[in-house]
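Fig. S4 source data, part A: sequence.
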Amino acid sequence: MKDVLQLKRNRGTVLKKIMLALLILMSANVLFAQKQVKNIVLVHGAFADGSGWEEVYKILKKKGFNVSIVGNPNTSFPEDVAAAKRNIDRIDGQIILVGHSYGGAIITEAGNSDKVVGLVYIAAFVPDAGETLLQLVQSGPPTPNSGIEPPSADGFIWYGKAKFHSGFCADLSKEKADFLYDSQVPIAASAFGATVSKAAWKTKPSWYIVATDDQTVPIEGARFMAKRANSKVTEIKGSHAVYVSQAKAVADVIVHAANESLK
């Protein structure tokens, strides 16, 4: 009889331990979920449109994130920032704001929203307050393989056909490069002379992806901007269009930012 009672006590103790372990695990999962930002906003740069984010978008959606892609018109810096802010304003909750190339300047300004808790720069410009993109471009060594053309008669800048594949997206197929070229959105020349009023990276955590085969943003310039912003740096072998060619690696950095930004 005593053995039966002891066996019941032991079973009860084991059951209590299992329940306690499950409660701890559930609490940890709830705490992790509370600390993980679930909203991601993606901002494209010059000579591109939102379609380039498709693979990154799919990966993030499968991981349970709410993802929004800004269709910035590239018609002026204020209008592009306004487009990003419209996306931010319609989202409930905290946001990781991601920018590629010229999109880095956009998120530096738009990222001052209280909803934005982290910034991810991908082969991007990271201007300081009062600093123009032209100053950043001219401060580094030239990129001889860049196909950026002079402004057209109506004040817009295109990326030329001859160097688009080699200079913008050398690690993509010719077919994909042709699509990106034919779908590019030119940028208003005035955007290169516009300045940021307040740099969000000064008050918010940031992450930076250096594309080591970039022929548009000089690598040393990218490293300088990332260091100045105190960004956590990841270097990925890829072209300027690294967010297209290395979508998984780029998405991994975004997920890491979402996990770490509230710690």
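Fig. S4 source data, part B ends here. Residues 83 and 254 are 21 Å apart (CA to CA).
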